[in-house]
Amino acid sequence: MNNTTFALPPNLEPDQASPAWMNKGDNPQQLTTATLVGLQSVPGLIILYGGAVKKKWAVNSAFMALYAFACVLVCWVLWGYRMSLGDELPVPFLGTPNFALDEKFLFKKAFSGNFPNATMVYFQFAFAAITLILIAGALLGRLNFYAWMLFVPLWLTSSYTIGAFTIWSNNGFLYKLGIIDYSGRFVIHLSSGVAGFTAAYWVGPRLSKDRERFPPNNILLMLTGAGLLWMGWTGFNGGDPYSVNVDASLAVLNTHACTATSLLTWVMLDVYFFGKASIIGTIQGVITGLVCITPAAGKGRARMGSNNGGLLRLNSLVHYDDHPQEIQLLQMVDDTMAVLHTHAIAGCLGGILTGLFAEPKLNNLFFNSYGDYVGQFYGFEMGNFKAGFRQKGIQLLGILFIVKLNIVITSIICILVRFVVPLRMSVEDMEIGDEAAHNEEAYMPFGVKVKNLDSELKYLVVSPPFVFRFPVPSAFMKAGVGQGSWAGEEWRKKEKKMKGRRVPVAWVGGEWRKRWSEPGSRMGLSAAGQGEVEEEEREI
Description:
Belongs to the ammonia transporter channel (TC 1.A.11.2) family. Residues 34-443 form the Ammonium transporter AmtB-like domain. The chain has helices spanning 26-52, 58-85, 103-106, 117-136, 145-167, 173-177, 185-203, 208-212, 219-238, 246-274, 279-293, 302-322, 328-332, 339-357, 360-367, 376-382, 385-417, 427-432, 434-438, 474-479, 486-498, and strands spanning 448-450, 455-463, 466-473, 505-508, 511-514, 533-535. By secondary structure, it is mainly alpha-helical. It folds into 2 domains: 34-431, Orthogonal Bundle (Ammonium transporter fold), CATH 1.10.3430; 448-535, no CATH class.
């Protein structure tokens, strides 16, 4: 008897790196959309925050976002992902904390979609990270950075994971009821808005002069960050069907239609009520439009996107532009980047509108269930009044749950953190800003003038945007440039020698010496012992 064994040709053998269940189009699409969401945070929100605050807070604001992004990733793969979307604990609302770095787990098929767990972990991380960065927006300009270092892992573990498990996990009670949260309106935006506002209450306000006048240091950077946020939302909503299908296409179109309508409505109403269109206000219109459409991006017809955008801006205008003095809560709590109304209130509105406009046919594409996810208006049209009212009630229940959860958990975290480190920077540090918090500044100071000396320190712009500190002898100022004086000749030699170098020097006692002391302090030079230094904005 012949015991010959037969084997498939190498080109027909199963590929362990590309199993049969993995869709070769869905997996790269999901990785791409996850990266687009990541770009919303790094660099999108980093440069948006860095440009939107006062010059003295640019580094601190950007660094808070960068730290949150990295910290969330570490916590996410160690325990956060499995707590949010893993097996249920005996305790309600919680998943089982566990590593998401084991190869056996990462190579298995994800709980939804036709791609591996490794892709899903990365995709969901991007959403968790941006949630913490949005919270940071409410706390800019006074939060102790050490307190932020503790707050990020604590809030991710005790608040975000509960919201995500309850609404997104197959084991969550709101998921089982049939809540519609297409792309994180409740878990991300409502949570970040409420948590940020609550944390702002516990941290306290900025300095009074900062609250009264907090001009952005770079509006063009704000526009760049807002543009990255807008375009990155293509991945935010386009990736949530977990598949390359028509639902993803509809979600992307709805997203941009709502955002554009919100922006244009904001501009027109600002011109009508205030006479001028505001760039800063328009950026808020972009963000609120993006937030509002998210829960229903793939669940409502394309015209719904435009309707949501218009309704959203009308709501924001009435409540925040015309009657801010009537809303005492907003005066009591200092929400630096207006996270409450751009995310929490917009999220509530989006969730409610989803309960009205959710279309059964489109929900069937996502949930594979035609009659269980019916907006109230479509319930009237179908004669199924009960289903429409039920969906509206579930949406309201989700809003109530997330609001209460984040008020309670965020308050507990803030109370615990302040037993370890102060939540708030000292008044002296808040007066200084970045240099006190990180010993760094986003922009070089304008300069100093040395009194009672035969020299002055001024500025010379060598290569924008870098400003280099160069001294200008008094004799040079009298002789002028190019008049052949010894001072002018000496200045030109030193200018050529020092060009491109960031070494502060001073003309003291007839010679050039390095200046080691900081602006605002006494000169650290023996020949300049009696010299007093004061800050001055001067250029030559």
